[in-house]
């Protein structure tokens, strides 16, 4: 009896020691089903986010996601010569490895005002903005905006992966189908899947281009135009009178246009109606003339 008890106690102590060793072998902060990070894995850099995904056999792999940020700038520059500055902006775009996306100029009195939009690589945006500021006598305004589209880009990539897998499965079903109804139904489904793939892929290409290339919108104005714009900030009675006179002329023009529309659009058919009504009135049937009632006769004397 004592021998059996000793054997049971020895077995229990051995089991406790095995459990304690297995617990010590597993770090308290790591789940039992997650292996440690592979050697050489580094933390994500600034501007990147890291996600851990489990591979085959439960091994963990680390993936670094780049941030997808669209940047653009807007500048208003006062220059000495607008046409020369316009050519200089084109040179800045070419030097940065970009191109001119849009350019327009107009004449405002004796001055020329221009608007130009250039596309430059995102990495060269700050340097290009600095070069453009160097062309100006005065930098009236400068603004750089950013938009993070990382979440949309990653979601689209996941959707594309699922859609491509669905496309392959549907294609296999189409290859195995024998009935015409099944073939047509699967073909419609496959066409819809491929349409969604093309739509998402086009959006991804657009986002990629916008991330890779930044736009800079530049408004160029001469020094005289800037001085005139600054002088317009005060009260100018003569200008107010001129504006009121122009507004009154506009009102008179509107009234004259309304009168012409009434004459041309209404009277040409209203006049025949009036003539027809007068003709019908003249030909209306005339009744007998009404005679005044006879006055009451005076009572005869002696009448019963």
Would you kindly provide a written description of the structure presented here, covering whatever features stand out?
The protein is flat, with a radius of gyration of 45 Å. A five-stranded mixed β-sheet has the order 4-5-7-3-6. The protein has a two-stranded antiparallel sheet with strand order 1-2. Helix 4 runs antiparallel to helix 5. Among the domains are: 90 residues, Alpha-Beta Plaits; 62 residues. Helix content is 53%, strand content 22%.
Under the CATH scheme, which class of one domain? Alpha Beta
Termini, distance in Å? 165 Å
Shape: flat
Q: Note the quaternary state here.
A: single chain
Number of helices: 7
Rg is 45 Å
| Secondary structure category | alpha+beta
Order of strands, widest sheet: 4-5-7-3-6
Determine the mean pLDDT.
Answer: 76
CATH topology of one domain: Alpha-Beta Plaits
Q: Which H/E pattern describes the elements?
A: HEEEHEEHEHHEHH
Low-confidence stretches: 1-64
Q: Which labels suit this protein?
A:
22% strand; two-stranded antiparallel sheet; 304 residues; disordered N terminus; 7 helices; 7 strands; alpha+beta; Alpha-Beta Plaits
What's the layout of helices and strands?
Layout: H1 2-25, E1 48-54, E2 60-66, E3 69-79, H2 82-95, E4 99-108, E5 111-121, H3 125-133, E6 138-148, H4 150-176, H5 180-212, E7 213-222, H6 223-231, H7 237-282
Parallel strand pairs: 3-7
Antiparallel strand pairs: 1-2, 3-6, 4-5, 5-7
Helix pairs in contact: 4-5
Gist of the model:
The chain has 304 residues and is an alpha+beta fold.
